Amino acid sequence: MLRWTLKKHFVGNPTNSDFELKTAELPPLKNREVLLEALFLTGDPYMRVAAKRLKEGDTMMGQQVARFLLDSLIY
Predict the structure, then answer these.
(1) For residues 1-24, average pLDDT
(2) What does the CA dihedral 11, 16, 20, 21 come to, rounded to 10 degrees?
(3) Which segments constitute the Oxidoreductase N-terminal domain (predicted)?
């Protein structure tokens, strides 16, 4: 899994050096969980305010368009 994290708090316009793309291993899916692949990520103005509440290293949150890959539904 890839995830964008806040590397350091930014002042003014954010730059690429303010964020870090990290790789992490996904745990096995639990019952009733799904695996999605992000196709498009938003870069909305509210994210600037939300980033102020994050600690360095936290994952950036936002909206996305995703594709369904796998489910773990047990019938």
Answers:
(1) 91
(2) 150
(3) 3-67
State the Cα–Cα distance between residues 34 and 50, nearest whole angstrom: 26
The domains of the chain are located at 2-71
| Whether CATH 3.90.180.10 fits 2-71 | yes
**What is the model's pLDDT at position 9?**
92
Is the pTM higher than 0.70? The answer reads: no
Tokens for 59? 């994952």
What spatial distance separates the first Cα and last Cα of the chain, rounded to whole Å? 27
Q: What are phi and psi of 69, to 5 degrees?
A: -115, -45
pLDDT of residue 69: 94
Q: Which two tokens stand for residue 33?
A: 């969980």
